[in-house]
Amino acid sequence: MSTPLKVAVLGCGSVGSQVVRLLGEQADDLAARIGAPVELVGVAVRRLDAPREIEVPEGLLTTDAHALVTRPDVDLVIEVVGGIEPARSLILAALENGASVVTANKALLAEDGPTLYEAAEKAGRDLYYEAAVAGAIPILRPLRESLAGDRVTRVLGIVNGTTNFILDKMDSSGAGFAEALEEAQELGYAEADPTADVEGFDAAAKAAILASLAFHTRVTASDVHREGIADVTAADVASARDMDAVVKLLAICELRTTAAGEDAVAVRVHPAMIPRSHPLASVREAYNAVFVESEAAGQLMFYGPGAGGSPTASAVLGDLVTVARNRLAGTRGAGESAYADRAVLPMGETRTRYHVAIDVDDRAGVLAAVATAFAEHGVSIQTVRQEGRDDDAQLVVVSHEATDAQLSATVAHLREMDIVRDVTSVMRVEGENE
Amino acid sequence: MSTPLKVAVLGCGSVGSQVVRLLGEQADDLAARIGAPVELVGVAVRRLDAPREIEVPEGLLTTDAHALVTRPDVDLVIEVVGGIEPARSLILAALENGASVVTANKALLAEDGPTLYEAAEKAGRDLYYEAAVAGAIPILRPLRESLAGDRVTRVLGIVNGTTNFILDKMDSSGAGFAEALEEAQELGYAEADPTADVEGFDAAAKAAILASLAFHTRVTASDVHREGIADVTAADVASARDMDAVVKLLAICELRTTAAGEDAVAVRVHPAMIPRSHPLASVREAYNAVFVESEAAGQLMFYGPGAGGSPTASAVLGDLVTVARNRLAGTRGAGESAYADRAVLPMGETRTRYHVAIDVDDRAGVLAAVATAFAEHGVSIQTVRQEGRDDDAQLVVVSHEATDAQLSATVAHLREMDIVRDVTSVMRVEGENE
Prior knowledge:
The structure is a homodimer.
Chain A: E1 5-10, H1 14-25, H2 27-34, E2 38-44, E3 61-62, H3 65-69, E4 76-79, H4 87-96, E5 100-103, H5 106-123, E6 127-128, H6 140-146, E7 152-158, H7 161-173, H8 177-186, H9 195-198, H10 201-215, E8 225-226, H11 234-242, E9 245-257, E10 263-275, E11 287-294, E12 298-305, H12 309-329, E13 343-344, E14 351-360, H13 366-376, E15 381-387, E16 394-399, E17 402-403, H14 404-416, E18 420-429
Parallel strand pairs in A: 1-2, 1-4, 2-3, 4-5, 5-6, 8-10, 10-13, 10-18
Antiparallel strand pairs in A: 7-9, 7-11, 9-10, 11-12, 14-16, 14-17, 14-18, 15-16
Helix pairs in contact in A: 1-12, 4-5, 5-10, 7-8, 13-14
């Protein structure tokens, strides 16, 4: 058996500590699968005396991450610090130093992935990041490799456990958003400051990574249209239930056609109603799932825990085995694939469907007036349901596919109409092909 | 861009014709993803004048498969003929000739995989076979690579679409086996001779492949305990429904411990009841899904179409891209990994749970007598339900985990008891951890 491969771990929080644990516990299996033993040579932390989930031999801990990744004998660097800096500088330094890198850093990849991919290319080293999207669920490798002979047309993902937990709770108990968030916080599914999850930043980063791989095009977080779930009401969820649907925060990556007939990529994160019969509808609590549609394979779904120290560490170590084997073989895996270089479709031109609930005066001609407003903006109506009477009359309209610009203009128009008292719920509808 | 890679396709049936179609339609994308164009140089068929789904340029068709795979200029061979011979000889000849091979041949891999893996090793070439299990669903690559840093403990798979269609039909309509089979045949989900599917041979081959990869141990079809679904009755399905469960034909691969405390592998295919709340229970019609449990990742599920020309071709071409890239880089992917070399646990020592429905005389002491029979064989009872009275009295017993030998001895014992009129249903129960 070869000489050991030397591994440095950056970060010893919930993921890093599980990585360190598994490197020890699975050492024999890792060595057999890689073809050489793996030796942990250092763990970079912010404070030496911080409390941790596991005991790290004291000689391995260091606060000098830069010195660790530039050690001449380090072969493999695992970055599980998170955030933009110093993670970016450390990964770049590691690659420049000739190390192969495994990271779980979705925010960094979504913001500045190309810089890292180019550095890996230049160094001739691997940069793997399966753990960056949907935790333990193998989704990047299948997209990049298993579906490499196919044409992926759409990816629909539930890629944020916190928001799925909150929406699932709202659906099962009828709770409002604030109440469900509080419960998620009490149970440890949401952080004290839940902004990154609730406002869709986390899901948008993952959407950018998924779209880049699925469509062989550079997509960054700023290309992703993003809406969070803070405005989802108990009434929205109840309205979805009436339609035999459920509200989910979806990351949606689609191959679409521009007005000029070119392929383009549309990437967005927003709450949406999907039919209960859709495989994604049964994803409960904090679980994640990614639904992929491709021309030849048809519909695939990948399901599992989307976060957590130990599941994320599983994904990190899977990458580590591949990267280590490549290193021993003197080769590297597939680098960035951005040859298709498709345009990103602006949200306004993206075609979606809307569910709109409208409080109206209950008098003759209301339905005709509302239908006319839709028609004026070129939006075709799929169904209208009228509920209640007098002071409590409500129309629920579900449209056919139209551009998001047409749909939002329709809603703005409705809000200005005399007979419309209020537009109480506006939500996109996904998961059904027209 | 490099010189073209030359591809030979063996077989032009439902999968082969889709492979040929996609090689043409996706040529530009394949070239960009591989880094070199792919040129189809021949398609081996049994009869030149057979009807086919696509038109193959006449100069490419040949009936001499052996001559095709041993052409000195062939780089890649795709084998989608199926069956043991001549597929095995052709793959061996192709590898010996220096070609890399992609196959979808589960029967061959399950019967004689090691011969092929050794030939690939000796030739220093790739042998990839993602399409052999669960069609388009990426499951082998995730098991082999994504979970390489984890310890897989169990794989539960619905890996045969025909039997899932039949059992789903029995569940949704109350039909008996014969009637559901007939419908499956009419709709093209079952063949005129349905033996390979219905008797579990197809699923057993896939179970052997899954177990080999999951547990790094050579497992062949003869190591798999196999029971088909021909004896599943409408009463079994109804009884499952009473328990809020559903009957599925499962491929079950488990890491178990022998009496001597060693790790061992238990692999079996049989109909089983699983709770309706289990993710596998919602796999309808002819879809496939594979549920994986591992120590760090937890529970994952992979879902999609398990058969069909186009989905299977997607998996074949995904492998083709990887194998072609490896070839250009002068490297090969991970070969067979059988280092763990675990023993295969005999079915009698495998621990399972039983659901047993017993027609009994309705008199005092019956329950005690039945319970005593279970206890005599060391089987602990989880629940007993008593239904009906007088001539129609029935006990439904669900056991805790015991060895299959203890459980089958208990059933044999029950059948000999005076107070037992008949044991009407015996089925294993899976998908719950004890």
